[in-house]
């Protein structure tokens, strides 16, 4: 984590220290990360998280997520995408 923001809440990127950060990711995942660094943080779909890490839906229920239109079929439900590092911690 970048150090240089002082004590308490830091509104700078946890990875590079940039003063700008993605509000969307902060609201969804509770992480302070800039738009550039979030490209290096992989997301994982709910289905893949459940099968790859042998988790249950209950294991994921209190993790943050973002939704994205399903690329397979437009009529299907939106995908829930979780921050892979948070899913790995839960596993």
Please summarize what this structure is.
The chain is α+β, with helices and mostly antiparallel strands. It is 27% helix and 12% strand. It has helices at 23-29, 46-52, 57-60, 84-90; strands at 43-45, 66-68, 79-83.
Blueprint (SSEs and pairs):
Blueprint: H1 23-29, E1 43-45, H2 46-52, H3 57-60, E2 66-68, E3 79-83, H4 84-90
Antiparallel strand pairs: 1-3, 2-3
Give an overview of the whole structure:
It is a single chain. With 91 residues, the protein is of the alpha+beta class. The chain has helices at residues 23-29, 46-52, 57-60, 84-90; strands at 43-45, 66-68, 79-83. It has a three-stranded antiparallel beta sheet with strand order 1-3-2. It starts with 22 loop residues before the first helix and ends with a helix.
Name the features.
single chain, 91 residues, alpha+beta, three-stranded antiparallel β-sheet, 3 strands, 27% helix
Determine the mean pLDDT.
87
What is the assembly state of the chains in this entry? single chain
Order of helices and strands: HEHHEEH
State the total count of DSSP E strands: 3
Order the strands across the largest sheet as they lie in space. Answer: 1-3-2
Q: How many H/I helices? A: 4
Distance between the termini: 23 Å
Q: Residue ranges: pLDDT <50 for 5 or more in a row?
A: none
Helix/strand-derived category reads: alpha+beta
Into which percent range does the helicity of residues fall? 25-40%
Overall geometric form = globular
Biggest beta sheet attributes: 3 strands, antiparallel
